[in-house]
Amino acid sequence: MAGPAPRPTEPGSESDAAGLRFAIVVARFNQDITEVLLAGAERTLIAHGAAAADVDVYWAPGAFEIPLIAQTCAETDRFDAVICLGAVIRGETDHYQLVAEEAARGIADVSLQTGVPCIFEVLATPTLELAQARAGGSAGNKGEEAAEAAIQVARTLVEIRGG
Ligand code: INI
């Protein structure tokens, strides 16, 4: 007789998301890509035991605005980790490069200044095809990897801080 479906994670392990609270900040720019990242992140958090009610999603117009929304999430003390999702794709000007660099710098700053882990999954690719490959294509779904990183860092910080 078939037993119960295996749990994806051991309770209390570093990949156990049960009881952890997550904010996902996702950019609308290049939404065809970012909504796939979002679905991958949400699916992975739930598969690892997070409650749907403990996953809040906030939209930013573009990747440039992600750090401020992530900072606001982090300052509430309501979240164990913030997952930042975006897609910056090279255009005809240097604008994309400024957006990608400021998003990366801003997200890292929020993490270090607030002590709330902010996971950086803002794709920066020269072509749409390379972004698609990382959003459910041949290179996997980076939203799933972002969720796994969020769980692992949040669990590690809980352990270091004494539960
Ligand atoms: N925002 C993105 O998320 N991805 C991009 O590729 C992008 N490009 O290339 O311009 C982009 N620009 C918008 C930016 O994030 C801001 O929303 C905008 O500059 C208003 O502050």
Characterization of this structure:
This protein has 163 residues and is of the alpha/beta class. The chain has a single domain (22-160), classed as Rossmann fold (3-Layer(aba) Sandwich), CATH 3.40.50. The protein contains five helices and six strands, in the order E-H-E-H-E-H-E-H-E-E-H. The chain has helices spanning 31-47, 66-75, 95-114, 128-134, 142-160; strands spanning 22-27, 55-60, 81-89, 118-125, 135-137, 140-141. Strands 2-1-3-4 form a four-stranded parallel beta sheet, with helices on both faces. A two-stranded antiparallel sheet has the order 5-6. Helix 3 (95-114) links the parallel strand 3 and strand 4 (118-125). Helix 1 crosses helix 5 (142-160) and helix 2 packs parallel to helix 3. The protein starts with 21 loop residues before the first strand and ends with a helix. It binds 5-nitro-6-ribityl-amino-2,4(1H,3H)-pyrimidinedione. Residues 27, 29-30, 61-65, 86-89, 91, 95-96, 99 line the site of 5-nitro-6-ribityl-amino-2,4(1H,3H)-pyrimidinedione.
Briefly summarize what is shown.
The chain has 163 residues and is an alpha/beta fold.
CATH topology: Rossmann fold
Give the CATH H-level superfamily: Lumazine/riboflavin synthase
| Percent helix range | 40-55%
Tally of DSSP β-strands = 6
List ligands, each type once: 5-nitro-6-ribityl-amino-2,4(1H,3H)-pyrimidinedione
Structural domains: how many: 1
Report the major sheet. 4 strands, parallel
Instruction: Measure the end-to-end span.
Output: 39 Å
Order of helices and strands: EHEHEHEHEEH
CATH architecture, please?
A: 3-Layer(aba) Sandwich
Q: On the 0-100 scale, what is the average pLDDT?
A: 94
